[in-house]
Amino acid sequence: MLETLTGFLDRTSLAPHGICLLWRPELIWTHVISDAIIALAYFTIPVALGVFVTRRRDVVFGWMFWAFALFIMACGTTHLFEIWTLWVPDYALEAAVKAVTAAASIVTAILLWVLLPKALALPSPAQLRTANAELEARVRERDAALDALREAYAERDRAEDMLRQSQKMEAIGSLTGGVAHDFNNLLGVVISNLDRIERFLPAESGAHRSLRGAMNGAERAAALVQKMLAFARRQPLQPVSVDPNRLIRDLSELLRGALGTVEAPEMVLAPHLWPVRVDANQLENALLNLSVNARDAMPGGGQAVIRTRNVPAAEAAGIAGLRALDHVAISVEDSGAGMSAEVLARAFEPFFTTKAVGEGTGLGLSQVFGFAKQSDGHAEIISQPEHGTTVRLYLPRERTELSSVKPGGEAARISPAPRLGFA
């Protein structure tokens, strides 16, 4: 075995490859330079493959890159021996290197053919772009579904809050109405007896002054009870056909006095405003109450604006608390400090007030709310801190129906009776 290996490596009987080229310089150096450049490229490519596979560990079939690197490096070594054997006849060592290269090449080729079906199964860049686009579309659909779900949850929460607020107002209204009704009966007894005592009391009696003070207190209590009944929607109303614009113009001087300003408030009154069927006196009281609240919200002065406009049935259908009917909206706006969310949530509650003790009963807004509801309408407050407050009354448009045809073919229109009671 040793003799065979020694004989294989023996080069004494061999001549270098340069003799075959007759040592012609142009041939020798062409081979040297070409093989050197090829060898350099062969040694550089495996290094680049190794760096790529090392840094990109996510690349599939990375072991195939190492197989290629080994094969290419063996090829580069054979080219170095091509240069070496030009002068030194180490053909045995060159043959060994070529054998290693052959083995590496056949292994690499087999592995490549085994890997080929799996490589072909990999998605192409176009398929990846298509899949990525589909994934992005599904992500957008999911995000849209999540946004819709969040909006649905938010809408449900708002509906639940409105329901709780409505139930709370109904409960407070029932309690307030019951207490006010009983208290009103008691005040009736007190006032009637005080009046009887005053009639039978001698004119020279010194008790007249005390009796008059008691009568004034009872009358103020009766007025307070009327406000409570207004919130509870139990006050008697006398609805008539009212032109809101005309009523507001006729009330301008009183509104100016309620606002405490030199000039009347700014009025933005819509032309061709629909008539409403309400109690005119109660509407005046509601506007005066709102004007007083606007004045108190602007202690440093400011501009109050009264607006009117028609609200068609289609728009009313999208406003919480309104039926899909034509309405007239009357707004009283101030440029005051506005309300916080906590105050806004309780603004219509009776006896709730942010004023100091003795400066207000907390029944002004609740009376407005009760009047609107009893008139088959609605009231809402829009306010933000430092952005003023707007209180808006929605009153249903007066509806006339064709009831009959008079002799001669003339149509007669009648107004339906107002729907009173509890909303």
How does this model look, in words?
The structure is a single chain. The strands form three sheets. This protein has a five-stranded mixed sheet. Strands 1-3 form a two-stranded antiparallel ribbon. α4 packs antiparallel against α5, α7 (208-231) packs across α13 and α10 (280-297) packs antiparallel against α13 (364-374). With 423 residues, the protein is an alpha+beta fold. Helices cover 59% and strands 12% of the residues. It is built from 13 helices and nine strands. It has helices at residues 2-9, 17-20, 25-55, 62-84, 91-121, 125-200, 208-231, 244-250, 252-259, 280-297, 313-316, 341-346, 364-374; strands at 240-242, 266-269, 276-278, 305-311, 327-334, 378-383, 389-396, 401-406, 410-414. The radius of gyration is 50 Å and the shape is rod-shaped. The protein has three domains: 2-122, no CATH class; 128-202 and 209-229; 238-414, Heat Shock Protein 90.
